[in-house]
Amino acid sequence: MLGVSRRAADRLREGHLWVYRSDLLPFATGDEPTAGALVTVVDGRRIALGSGLYSSASEIAVRMVSNSAALKRTEFLGLVRERAIAAIRLREELSPQSSQNNARRLVFSEADALPGLVVDQYHDLIVAQLLTQGMARADVRSVLADVLPIAFAGRGGTVLERADARMRALERIEAGSAGDDVLAVVPAANDMSADTSATSERANQARTATVFTINGLRFHYDASAGQKTGAFLDQRLNYQAAAMHARGRALDVCTYQGGFALHLARRCDRVTGVDASRAALEVADRNLQLNLAQEGQTGDAESRLTAEVDWIEADAFDLLRAFADSGERFDTVVLDPPAFAKSRRAAEGAMRGYKELNLRAMRLLRPGGTLVTCSCSHHVGLDMFQGVVREAAVDARRRVQLLETRGAAPDHPAVMTLPETTYLKCLICRVG
Fold it and tell me: Measured between alpha carbons, how far apart are the two ends of the chain, in Å?
């Protein structure tokens, strides 16, 4: 049993799902659980609060998985199976596969009651990340290899595990416990009766790269490169919304692989995508060429890229300053930086970064221009983020109207009692 403070017990009773290391009661000598173990969490009176997965390394010491005490590993694996299937079925409702959209998040960690598990589907490729000590185990992989192919609906594809080096280091997951491995290769023609385990023969057949489609635009995906599990699928509907408000000359800051930029190119005259990563920009240009080639084949007017598109490798802050100094002006600016606050302690510095970025963007916008500004830091709440944009407007002496407040796409659901799952903020503004 693992004792927690009254503060932590109150949070858990209110539906929060994490126990921070600072809230653990002292261990008796030799009583600390093993890494990744299932533990029963109790309050100071030893009243059971449920079962969770223990991490010996993370500041989030326990991630709750059940309200039942003394959960056995076999029972937990049964829950993994049930919850993964339920998550896939939910995505069939929220984000069904189509010719216009064949990429989606299948499992979103705590939001699907599977903490430490993130699974994305890119057309015929499913990529899983097992991010905690309790999840990065062979028995969980076996369950996923059996369950995740359901999402292919008989069309065939490959299920991969992709290791996250940063999270593996933070969680102190042993090198042999997580990696870039083939979990399953599913043949086409609805041959779901065949063995889907990753045998050496099928592993040789596995694909690690594909092309997927969102909002009618095509993107390359390579499981051996990129951030997170790949593309930022949580922004899918925000890409569309931004394009609806965009016009004229557009600037996409922190474009990564061109998600916002290519959507803006359907509506604008000229689009410049900026990123500090040359590798990301190379993929962005491949995505641009892929869609230009597709236009030549289909002639679909609605999907046509009307803008001249160029890419700049640069630090966002330095480039915005240089643009301002040289008198450059834009009609649309998108700000989609990586998370500035990766911890609670970093939130204050993150707020300064967000303010400077938004201030510089507002100064570049012509009157009546559109600002699309995003934050994916769960340590920076919506009120805090809106406050920073408001402060930037005051300092820039610009009148800013908030047109839309948006979040992640529906296949990234949030848990109402876990505010950290409401991480993505997207504000669409008119700057006078």
Answer: 59
Mean pLDDT (whole number) for 192-217: 67
- Whole-Å CA distances, 17 to 206, 385, 419: 36, 24, 10
Residue indicated by tokens 């490169």: 225
CA 117 to chain centre: 12
The one-letter amino acid at 274: V
Q: How confident is the model at residue 416 (pLDDT cuts 50, 70, 90)?
A: very high
Tell me whether residue 376 is one of the annotated catalytic residues: yes
Classify each residue of 132-163 as buried b or exposed e, where b means 16 or more C-beta atoms within 10 Å of its C-beta.
bbbbbbeebbebbbbbbbbbbeeebbbbbbbb
Q: Structural domain of residue 250, as residue ranges?
A: 232-431
Q: Which of 254, 374, 376, 426 is catalytic?
A: 376
For residue 172, what is the domain's CATH number?
Answer: 3.30.750.80
226 falls within a domain: no
For the domain that residue 17 is a member of, what is the CATH number? 2.30.130.10
pLDDT, residue 178, reads 47
Looking at residue 194, its pLDDT comes to 46
